TrEMBL record:
Gene: prmC
EC number from the UniProt entry: 2.1.1.297
GO biological process, one term: methylation
Xref: Gene3D superfamilies: DNA helicase RuvA subunit, C-terminal domain, Vaccinia Virus protein VP39
Entries under NCBIfam families matching the protein: hemK_fam (TIGR00536), RF_mod_PrmC (TIGR03534)
Catalytic activity: L-glutaminyl-[peptide chain release factor] + S-adenosyl-L-methionine = N(5)-methyl-L-glutaminyl-[peptide chain release factor] + S-adenosyl-L-homocysteine + H(+)
Species of provenance: Pontixanthobacter luteolus
Protein name as it appears in the record: Release factor glutamine methyltransferase
UniProt keyword annotations, A-Z: Methyltransferase, S-adenosyl-L-methionine, Transferase
Residues in Methyltransferase small domain copies: 104-193
Length: 274
C-alpha cells in the first residue's frame, strides 16, 4: 500500500514543472481527497492509504489548473471564498486594499466594489465592518452568482447588494447611490503580457487584460466616479507594481491626488484617490 507520506513526495516531484509551490499543492490536494484539513492530514494522515480521488486531482494540477479552482475555494483575509473559473482567484496582494480601506473608512461606510468577482474585497470589508453596507457590480453573470453565494456563506447578504452591470456601458451607474468608499481591482494586465499557464489558460481574460498598456480600464473608470462619491469619499484602486505613476497621472486629470500603498513584498499595490 502506498502511504500518504510517500505519495506526497512523489506528487511534489511530479508537480515541479507545473507549480512553484509543488509540495503545498500536493498537500492541499491530498487533504481534499481524504476529506480533512491540511493540518489534520499532516498530523494524523501520513500513514493512511491514498484515496483514488487523489490521482484525478493531481492530474488536473499537472495540466496547470489552479488549486483554487480544483478545490472550488480560496482563502482571503482569513476567510474562505467559493471560486470557479468565472472569477479571478483572490490574491494575498489584494489584502493591501482591505487594510487601506479599514484605516481610511468610517465604521458605517457605504461601499461600492467595481468588478467584484468572487466578492472578496467587498464581503471582507462588510465582515470586518459590521455597520457597513455595500454594492458589488460585475459584468459577468457568473461572477455575480459566485459573489452572491459568498455573501450568503459569510453571513453578510443582508448588507450586500450584488448587481450585474458593466462600467463601459452607457447609464450603468444611474440607479446607484453615493458611496464613502469605491474600491476596485480592475483588469490591468497588458494584452501581450506573458503569464503563467495557470493564469492565462484558466482565469477569466475579461478580469485580467486591459489593452496594450494595461491602463484602458483606469482611463474609462476614473473619470466616471466623482459623482458617485460622498463629499469626503475615497477611491481605492489595485494597480500593477509598475503602474503607480501612470495611474496617478490618469487620476490627476480628473482632479484626484493619489496616495500609494505597498504590499507585503514592498511593491506598489494600491492607490488611494481623494
Amino acid at each position: 500500500m502506498t502511504t500518504v507520506s510517500a505519495a506526497l513526495r512523489e506528487a511534489a516531484s511530479a508537480l515541479e514543472g507545473a507549480s512553484d509551490t509543488a509540495r503545498l499543492d500536493a498537500e492541499l490536494l491530498m487533504a481534499e481527497a481524504l476529506g480533512m484539513s491540511r493540518s489534520e492530514m499532516l498530523l494524523t494522515g501520513r500513514d493512511r492509504g491514498v484515496p483514488p480521488e487523489f490521482a484525478r486531482l493531481l492530474d488536473r494540477r499537472k495540466q496547470h489548473e489552479p488549486v483554487a479552482y480544483i478545490l472550488g475555494r480560496q482563502e482571503f483575509y482569513g476567510r474562505e471564498f467559493l471560486v470557479n473559473p468565472q472569477v479571478l482567484i483572490p490574491r494575498g496582494d489584494s489584502e493591501t486594499l482591505v487594510d487601506a480601506a479599514l484605516r481610511n473608512s468610517p465604521p458605517a461606510a457605504r461601499i461600492l466594489d467595481l468588478g467584484t468577482g468572487s466578492g472578496a474585497l467587498l464581503l471582507t470589508l462588510l465582515a470586518e465592518l459590521p455597520k457597513a453596507s455595500g454594492t458589488g457590480i460585475d459584468a459577468s453573470l457568473g461572477a455575480v452568482s459566485v459573489a452572491a453565494a459568498n455573501a450568503a456563506r459569510l453571513g453578510v447578504a443582508d448588507r450586500a447588494h450584488i448587481l450585474h452591470a458593466d462600467w463601459n456601458a452607457e447609464g450603468w451607474s444611474e440607479n446607484l447611490d453615493r458611496f464613502d468608499l469605491i474600491i476596485a481591482n480592475p483588469p490591468y494586465v497588458e494584452t501581450g503580457a506573458e503569464l503563467a499557464p495557470s493564469v492565462r489558460q484558466f482565469e477569466p481574460a475579461s478580469a485580467l487584460f486591459a489593452g496594450a498598456d494595461g491602463l484602458d480600464d483606469y482611463r474609462s473608470l476614473i473619470p466616471q466616479l466623482s459623482n458617485m462619491l460622498t463629499p469626503n469619499g475615497i477611491i481605492l484602486l489595485e494597480i500593477g507594481y509598475a503602474q503607480a505613476d501612470q495611474v496617478s497621472q490618469i487620476a490627476g486629470l480628473s482632479g484626484y491626488s493619489a496616495e500609494l500603498f505597498r504590499d507585503l513584498a514592498h511593491r506598489p499595490r494600491a492607490l488611494l484617490l481623494r
